[in-house]
From TrEMBL:
This is Uncharacterized protein. Keywords: Signal. InterPro entries: Pectin_lyas_fold, Pectin_lyase_fold/virulence. Gene3D superfamilies: Single-stranded right-handed beta-helix, Pectin lyase-like. Residues 1-20 form the signal peptide.
Length: 118
């Protein structure tokens, strides 16, 4: 029991950044990431802070510890789209953006408004 107390105490004294390290190599597009080297990790607390960390020229290790909601921060777009036949719910269903090659075809045209922060 005493050794369990020592393990718990040691775990609580270890910096959070050490516990959050990733082991192994990322897959996909992340496989080319170089990281921030030996810099101290940063943990953004606001969306503005995260954007600042992602867009400045400093090498960084960014620990993302929560969900960041970008809804409304990048504006919105209104364009002509369509109501595909798969939308059987009318205004309550999902309409489509008319993507390349006239994806909408002969489906009925509708106005589509969407948030730019996908």
């Amino acid at each position: 029991m005493l050794s369990l107390v020592y393990v718990l105490a040691a775990t609580l004294l270890v910096p959070r950044a050490v516990l959050a390290q990733v082991v192994g190599k990322p897959a996909g597009f992340g496989s080319a990431a170089t990281g921030g080297g030996d810099v101290d990790p940063v943990t953004p607390s606001t969306t503005d802070e995260l954007v600042s960390y992602l867009t400045d020229a400093e090498p960084r290790v960014i620990l993302v510890t929560k969900t960041f909601d970008f809804t409304g921060l990048e504006g919105s777009t209104t364009e002509t789209g369509c109501r595909p036949s798969s939308n059987t719910c009318g205004n309550a269903g999902q309409d489509a953006i008319n993507a390349a090659n006239n994806w909408c075809g002969d489906n009925p045209s509708v106005t589509v408004n969407y948030d730019n922060a996908a």
